[in-house]
Write a structure and sequence with these properties.
The structure is a single chain. The protein has 3 helices and 4 strands; from the N terminus they run H-E-E-H-E-E-H. It is an alpha+beta fold. It has one domain. A hairpin with a 6-residue loop joins strand 1 and strand 2.
Length: 80
Amino acid sequence: MNKNSDSEKGQVMTLLSALYEDMLQNPCPSCKTVHMQKGRWFATVTKYQCLHCDLTVLLTYQRKVEIFTLHQARKDKIGT
């Protein structure tokens, strides 16, 4: 691994842990029902069942980064 990759991963991990107590959301890719949980939950799970359509929703590392990044962008926009 090169130094840039290590640095980027460190920045992502800092972003993730800084939002552990925030309520984050992820829409079901099938029915679009929004699933809300604290950031800590999203950081640790790999999949969950949609309560509306029963789809198993997979949470890849890339998707988790997207969820946390979108949440941080919303926070930055409203200034909290």
